[in-house]
Amino acid sequence: MEFKKGSTYTRNDIHKLYKGKDIPKVGTGNWTTGYVREGDELIVFMNIDVPGTTGHDFPNRYDSVNKTITWYGKPGSNSKQPTFQKLFNNEMIPHFFARWDSRDPFVYLGEGKIVSHRDGYPTKKLDGSPAETIEVILTCDDSDYIFPNLSEQESNFPQSRFALEKYLEEFIVDNWDSIEGIGNKYEICEEEVDGKRKKFRTDTGEIDIFAQSKDKSEYLIIELKKGRASDSVVGQIQRYMGYIKEEIAEDGQKVKGLIIALDDDLRIKRALQATQDIEFNFYLIDFKLSKSDFQ
Description:
The chain is α+β, with helices and mostly antiparallel strands. It folds into 2 domains: 8-146, PUA domain-like (Roll), CATH 2.30.280; 157-291, Trna Endonuclease, Chain: A, domain 1, CATH 3.40.1350.10. The chain has helices at residues 11-19, 82-88, 143-146, 151-154, 165-174, 232-247, 266-272; strands at residues 8-9, 35-38, 41-47, 61-63, 68-72, 93-99, 106-111, 113-124, 130-139, 186-188, 191-193, 196-198, 201-202, 205-206, 209-213, 218-228, 254-263, 278-284, 288-291. A hairpin with a 2-residue loop joins strand 11 and strand 12. It is elongated, with a radius of gyration of 21 Å.
């Protein structure tokens, strides 16, 4: 399954992506616990600096110096169990989600890469009796942009750099009519629920911003990336475009893609040279989009 780094998801959101339906009221399996397996993927729900809704309170944490995440398994977990064996043998993809308030949805950190682990970390069961669990040290690419406790590091970034994709997204949506190149041609065509914008969701993930030209002849899929965008975003936006072409667009309606980021690299330059319907723009803080010099 593909998730967006820095985006928020509830347990139910993730369950619906895998199962196509809400978490049932009974027979939830492991979906209300710290982690759950779905095929060759492991979905990990981390509470940081706050107990989970089940009452467990693990010292999950982020080391901003080494850029590592420390995660603890359920009471009784150890490295000999099949789930962890597959995880350490790279036979399973771990998706890490974190939150800092048990009332909030989870933020997607990315796919974890295991650095080390150890059995026998002391913990407690819900009844207070002693137990042991496994401690896992891992990394997630771009985690230093996602964790909210990096104010000291973020203060060293230029003011035009957004720490999270969602800040850039909110800024563009709020100032849509003022942004040259899109505000005068397109309108956002997403639903509102209880006064809040609801992102358009495809069968492979949700679109950052979904718009349609004012003359109804064209759809526009906008994908936002903080910092430097890599070539993987091209495949991501192409999947969204394919869904819109097959499921939404009518005969004669075009579907285009727009990647907006603050930097690029050679790989995305090469990838975009092979497609005609996707543009790459740099975002400028004065309500302007600037085309990349390789387009």
